[in-house]
Amino acid sequence: MPSFPSPPPRFGSAPARGMTLVELMVGIAVGLLVIAVATGALMVSRGVSGTVTDASQLQQQASYAFRILGQQIRQAGSMQLNLAANKSPGDPILIEDFVAFSPNTEIYSALPETVPPNTPAVSGKDAPAAGEYRLSLAFQNYEEPSFPGGATVSFFRDCLGAQPSSTIIQSQFVLDTVLGELRCAGSNNVPQSLIRNVADFQVRYLIQNRAAAQSGLPTIQYVSAAGVPPIPAGGATDWSTVFGVEVCLVLYGDEPIDMPAGSDYTGCVDADGNGLFDKVVMTSLAGARRNRLHMAFRSVFQLRSQGLAG
To answer: What is the reported pLDDT for 5?
Structure first.
């Protein structure tokens, strides 16, 4: 058979060959380096995102708690006014201006001291024992016309949103130190959780000095529950001198944070009484609070119905 010549080689072509072991190892190393950098960036991003989420969640919980506390504190001591009372501008408010009560009805200390203060408008315990509360609030429950000519209903609610049928609406707050929850007992006296991850709950009271007020130079000062003065010649605590309540909450987050040793925050307690609130080191805390974001929140609420006793 005739033989055919082989085709001439193409210009510039090179024989095919595979990757060397060195090239393969370099490619793997570069790939692993890229994965490591991407993983580190992802972890940093997740940590920052978790911290931001924690901070946002704590602010929302504090806002919710203060909304409930503020609503109950501002209403403390309020009573139904007698709208038929004939008053001129500048006339003093007298006990007759309030709707009459039966002898068995509880009256608040917001009224003049001649009325027995069976249920104080505001009271509390600095170190509540089991079954006691750090802050207790009360006001009258009564019905009003829902619209002109309509049925009468009560628009008042306790801290749990319940509408009791009793004459007195009470809301009592305490910190469950075991579960880390701010709990509230409404008029049914059954505590329920309001917010979680609560590290501290402290209350201070703003009182007016009676002697200074009578001299025309009233002064307001912060005191603990034990510092509220007694009724003159009575011995019992005179809660009618309380004009406002300061509430301090410390909340902590869910995400562990890699924070420097000695990182601290300003707490709610002034243990040494020097006028400065104590620092709390987050890196030395035990349990779930260690290396967690902590935020302290404070708010002062004025009692709308207090001060009548003066």
So the answer is: 65
CB atoms within 10 A of CB 279: 10
243: buried, middle or exposed (CB in 10 Å: 19+, 13-18, 0-12)? middle
- Neighbouring C-alpha atoms within 13 Å toward the C-beta of 50: 15
Could you report the per-residue pLDDT of 186-228, keeping only the tens digit for each? 888 889 999 999 999 999 999 887 666 667 777 888 999 999 9
**Look-up of token digits 């917010």:** 195
How far is residue 309's CA from residue 242's CA, in Å, rounded to a whole number? 10
pLDDT at residue 277, as a whole number: 92
Q: What gap in Å lies between CA 169 and CA 157, rounded to an integer?
A: 7
- Span 137-146, pLDDT tens digits: 988 888 877 7
Which H or E element spans position 242? strand 242-256
Longest Cα–Cα distance in the chain: 139
Name the CA dihedral angle for 101, 104, 108, 113, rounded to a multiple of 10 degrees.
90
Q: How many residues does the chain have?
A: 310
String of DSSP letters for 272-304? T-SSSPPEEEGGG--GGGTTEEEEEEEEEEE-T
DSSP string covering 75-124: HTT---B-TT----TTPPP-GGGBPP--TTS---TTS-TTS--SS-SEEE
